[in-house]
Amino acid sequence: MIAQFILSILLAGILIYAWSEYGRSPAVALLAVFVATAGLYFVWAPEHSTALAELVGIGRGVDLILYVWVCLSLIVVLNLHLKLRTQMELITALARQLALADAQASDFISSRPGARKPRQTSDRNA
Amino acid sequence: MVSRPRVYVVIPAYNEGPVIARVVTEVKRAGHAVVVVDDGSSDATADQARAGGAVVIRHPFNLGQGAALQTGIDYALAHAAEFIVTFDADGQHRLSDISRLVEALVQERADFALGSRFLGQAPNLPPLRRLLLRAATAFTRLTTGLQVTDTHNGLRAMTRRGAAAIRLRQNRMAHASEWLGQIAASGLRYVERPVTIEYTAYSLAKGQTIADAVFILLDLFARRLYR
């Protein structure tokens, strides 16, 4: 009974997570909702999971739930990957702005009359 | 202020110190403005490019070739470029192909002119690399619907309007397919022209491998999963 409560809380957490992710990636969110709901159902009706497991050719309901859990983790990993990618895009935009602003500044300096040549040495801060 | 050159040649460079000055000098001599995007190199690439007479834009850290190209294009657009050409830093492209591609833009009233080594020549192209490029081309044709013969060629020319339609989001090497996807989506006219690519020991050492191709495929696949 205790295990069932703990699992239920974890799965409910996944549901909330999926709900909050819906705006960014509906496909991932819907998949997560589906899997978490199925998980919740089987946690409270293990005999149904055994029946279903036998139907699809898996020995025990517990095994079925374990497999489902693995799938769920993979989905979360995928979602994290996509999130990292979005962050990379933001970092790229930031770095690009910085590089372009830097180039513009040195354009301006070198276009003024009597200006020194733009720095020739490496501008890495030693 | 002198009148701005019409053609901006964008050269992404990552640790190309040994060769970049020569490439820049040659392109400058042909009368084009040169923008080198130093993609966070740890060697003297930026200094060498400046010595050759290029405008140098430095990424604070390495972001990838796609990101470097986009930065160079942004710079050229901001400086009233009429035509923008992308060119590789390792000296494998031929200078005369730049004007040939730009002429093709004007004559064909196209917005993109893409270089193709398979219409042209590629001396010393290793058989395995040829096979890999063929496979990449088949894949891109399938996914974008463009009938091109060489999808992974760094030599491209575009008009201002064409460049404005491009927004590369694949920082790493998957940008080659992204170019074609965006060209197809823009609905603008494109032409392909034969170009010569000279493979040297230097450029071959820096080229793509089978493992890179696998990662590119994974990357492109992941991209389709979310909006």
Q: How would you explain this protein's 3D organization?
A:
The complex is a heterodimer of chains A (126) and B (227). By secondary structure, chain A is mainly alpha-helical. Chain A has one domain (2-108). Chain A contains four helices and no strands. With 227 residues, chain B is an alpha/beta fold. Chain B has a single domain, classed as Spore Coat Polysaccharide Biosynthesis Protein SpsA, Chain A (Alpha-Beta Complex). Chain B is 45% helix and 19% strand. Chain B has nine helices and seven strands, in the order βαβαβαβαβαβααβαα. In chain B, strands 3-2-1-4-6-5-7 form a seven-stranded mixed β-sheet, with helices on both faces. The longest helix of chain B has 18 residues, at 127-144. Chain B is globular, with a radius of gyration of 16 Å. The termini of chain B are far apart. The A-B interface holds A 24-25, 27-28, 78, 81-82, 85, 88-89, 92, 95-96, 98-100, 102-103, 107, 111, 118, 120-123 and B 1, 37, 44, 46-47, 50-51, 55-61, 63, 67, 70-71, 74-75, 78, 169, 171, 222, 225-227.
> Total helix count of chain A?
4
In round numbers, the mean pLDDT of chain B is: 86
CATH architecture of chain B: Alpha-Beta Complex
What oligomeric state is this? Answer: heterodimer
In total, the number of strands of chain B is 7
What percent strand of chain B?
A: 15-25%
C-alpha Rg of chain A (nearest Å): 27 Å
Major β-sheet strand ordering of chain B: 3-2-1-4-6-5-7
**Helical/strand content category of chain A:** mainly alpha
Judging from the principal axes of the Cα atoms, what is the shape of chain A?
A: rod-shaped
In helices, the fraction of residues of chain B equals 40-55%
Which radius of gyration of chain B do the C-alpha atoms yield?
Answer: 16 Å
- H/E element sequence of chain A: HHHH
